[in-house]
Every structure is written in structure tokens, then in C-alpha cells.
């Protein structure tokens, strides 16, 4: 077994001190990130259109909406969460919004009364 040198003891102490100081700083960020990963469920009428949003059931294909489904008049509006936490939809792709509810409202605004057509899956 190698002897414990002064250099090894100081290195180990520095690593432990650095790790102990970093953990409390990371905990609030991890807790905040978990809160933002689950958008609220909603069901409302917006400008005469029924919009709904809820956690998506697990299916065989990949969802970009982080497991969240949005519907306009019962037709699924494909949504995607961006890396910065904003949301976009297939209808208003270049206008990021803060929530899936806002994405549904933006889609209704963009559709201007036209029906949302089903988006073919791959």
C-alpha cells in the first residue's frame, strides 16, 4: 500500500472541499428544473375553439413535446419544447411561446378559423 504523502493528503482535501461546496449550489437548480418540466393541464375555449393540453400517454413514436399533448378541437397540435424552455407548434413554428397553452392559443390565432388538419406521423 502506498504511503500517504503530504501532496496526496492535500489533493484529497482539496477535492473533498470543492465537491462539498458545489453540491448545495447545484441542488436549487435541479429542483427548479424539475418544476418547469411539467406544464399545467388545461381545457378551455379560446376564440370559439376548444384547446386542451395534458401529459401525453406513452406511445411507440418519439414526442418532441416532452411527453405533453395539445389538442385544438380534438385534433392533436404537434408541439415541441425548445432547449431554452419555450414551446413551438407545427402551426406557429417561428414564434416561440412560454407554455403549451400559449402555443395552442397562437395556433388558433394563426389558423384564423380554419380547421387544424391531422399531422401525419412519419
From TrEMBL:
Residues annotated as signal peptide: 1-27
Pfam families (alphabetical): MelC1
InterPro entries: GriE/MELC1_sf (IPR023199), MelC1 (IPR010928), TAT_signal (IPR006311)
PROSITE patterns in the cross-refs: TAT (PS51318)
Coiled coil, from the record: none
Keyword terms of this UniProt record: Copper, Signal
Family: Belongs to the melC1 family.
NCBIfam families reported for this sequence: TyroCdyMelC1
Name the UniProt record assigns to this protein: Tyrosinase
Organism encoding this protein: Streptomyces africanus
Amino acid at each position: 500500500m502506498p504511503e500517504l504523502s503530504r501532496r496526496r493528503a492535500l489533493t484529497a482535501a482539496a477535492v473533498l472541499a470543492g465537491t462539498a461546496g458545489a453540491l448545495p449550489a447545484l441542488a436549487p437548480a435541479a429542483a427548479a428544473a424539475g418544476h418547469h418540466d411539467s406544464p399545467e393541464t388545461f381545457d378551455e375555449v379560446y376564440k370559439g375553439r376548444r384547446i386542451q393540453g395534458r401529459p401525453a400517454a406513452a406511445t411507440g413514436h418519439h414526442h418532441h413535446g416532452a411527453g405533453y399533448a395539445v389538442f385544438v378541437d380534438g385534433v392533436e397540435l404537434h408541439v415541441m419544447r425548445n432547449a431554452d424552455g419555450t414551446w413551438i407548434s407545427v402551426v406557429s413554428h417561428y414564434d416561440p411561446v412560454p407554455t403549451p397553452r400559449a402555443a395552442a392559443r397562437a395556433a388558433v390565432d394563426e389558423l384564423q378559423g380554419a380547421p387544424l388538419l391531422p399531422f401525419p406521423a412519419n
